[in-house]
Structures are given as C-alpha cells and as structure tokens.
C-alpha cells in the first residue's frame, strides 16, 4: 500500500469530504431521534443529550467525523495536527472497528430498527467504520505506529468503561446489555468488559502490524 503524502492521491479530498458529511449526518439523525423520543415521552431533553453523548458508538463516531473534517481543513493549529496524526487516526480506526464488530456480534440481533433509525444505525455501525478504515489504509502515511501507541489507545475504552459503570450505578442505566451489572451481576459484566477490551487490544495489534508492514514496504 502507498504511504505518500495525502495530497498526492487523486480524489482524496472528495472522498474525505463525503465521508465527513456522512459521519456528521449520521450523528445528527441519531441525536434528533433521541431528542424526539424524549420530547414525545415528556422526558428531559438535557437528559437525552447526556444519554446521546454517553454511547461509545456516538463518541467514537464523533472522533471519526472530527478527524475527517480536520483532514480537509487547511488550518494548522495543534488540535488539527493532532487529529491528522497517523498514530491518532490509527487509534480511532481501532476504536471504530470495535464499534462495528461489537454491534454486529453482540447487539444487532436485539432489535430491528426501521426508517431513519435504520439509516442512522447503518451509518454509525457499518458505513462510517468502512469509510474510516479506507481513509486510514489508503490516505495516511504508514510506519509511525508502535506497540506503545496501542497501549495508549487502551486508555480510551478503559476510561469509557469506568464512566459507564459509574453512570449505571448512579442511574441504573448501563446503555449496553452486556455490561448491565444490575441484570448480569458484577462478575459477568466485568468479564464481558474485559472481553471487549481484549478485542480492542487485538484489533489494535492488527492495526499496528498492518502499519508496520506497509511502512516497511514504502521504505524498501
């Protein structure tokens, strides 16, 4: 795979622009659906916003959309450089692949979304993961990721799991059934959490190996 600078790729800007727009669109649709549901039920809209921002899928897709948006911007601030970093994007790739695999293996069978919910569901769990993997694989330099980066990336799901457990203990809402301590018990829920974390590390190591292999090829 090539690892030349992004600007040498014909059609790169168009691809990334479309991907970024789809990412923000999927998030906007999902936010609207949650807030509309809260409105219909007479529940707090602020609570709906907090709930929306609490999903790992939403947080990770937001990182994806931000990274893609930064990639098509000409600004050169520290934040923009951070989200253009190949190592950071490799970590986001690991996270969004986990989102897709966890949803399709553990959650998809639990419901059958329709209409706009189906559109948001497919965008956030299937289309955006595929687009961001393609962005990372074809449009970013390789050879910059180390095992240390993989270890640093694990801080993201670890911190998220900690937040999720604290939130669930406070409100009785764990968001994901395989992490529901109230239903499964602490041991089972933590076993599931560790299993997901192990999956994240496994994906991260695969990303690392791909990065190293393509980096060596580019310099050979």
UniProtKB/TrEMBL annotation:
Annotated keywords: Membrane, Transmembrane, Transmembrane helix
Transmembrane segments: 15-37, 49-70, 82-103, 123-140, 147-166, 186-210
Protein name (Swiss-Prot/TrEMBL): Pr6Pr family membrane protein
